[in-house]
Task: structure prediction
Amino acid sequence: MVEAINQQKERETVAKWLDLKSLSSIKGNSSFVYLKVLKEGLHRNSVSSFIKHSSLNLKQVSKLIHVSERTLQRYSPDKTINISSSERLIELTRLFHKGIDVFSEKEKFITWLNRSNKALANSKPIDLIETSLGIDLVMEELLRIEHGVFS
Result:
């Protein structure tokens, strides 16, 4: 029951942060919902919405989703971005959702993202989240923090 509530909250965050109106009407497991969204494609306005909610800038986000700043600037709001960038944007939103949940405040999570972390080989989490593997590492660390396991 708790897991279902957590998944619902995460889906609400993804919908809000990526400016997706129809996400709540899609039934099923969150992963299948996100797959359906990816098949339809995210638009440039999802990137703008993520930037607004995450407090990251265009340069940072373009690096994280592997699209040049210039390309993003040229895209119209309704232009569909490629599937790998869309997938990365969903992964990042899920990561931010978890981080804000763990730290209880977006500002505290952003501070944590930008600090060197011993558990992550003295890397800053923000520097690791350019790849899916890096996102997984940072997510695992957030889960350890959430459960009181500091490494």
